[in-house]
# Entry
Amino acid sequence: MSPFDTLDDARRALARLPGAPLRSTGAWDVPQVLHHVAQSVEYSLDGFPRLKPAWFRATLGRLAFAIFSARGRMSHALDAPIPGAPPIASGLPLDAAVAHALAALDRFERHDGPLQPHFAYGALDKAAFRRAHLMHLNDHWREFVAR
# Structure
């Protein structure tokens, strides 16, 4: 089972981070990961800075998302920035990163307009994007351990 099955599960875990902080075993620290996840959520609303070619999104990207959805989890390079996204510095404050991630998730849930195509998966409806965001956070969360 994934750490988060719903966005409410994710919100509760994120809200607990400042009081019971985790550390990352990966290349990015926890605040970097949270800002990265928030970027992804925001880009689903505002547009990703760089898209894979249309042929990729319509074939390999769509297939990857279908496989991830069927498995209920994704696996991706956990140190790979979103194509075209600005770099995220290390050593940023945890509270600000948590607030950014929570604000992005809340904005996504409130959004009732069109969504932008995912840079790799292409067009997703809100339920599919919600699933993608949860799988993305879950994949990164597996690198977190208690301090």
Observations:
- DSSP finds five helices and two strands in the chain.
- The chain has a mean pLDDT of 95.
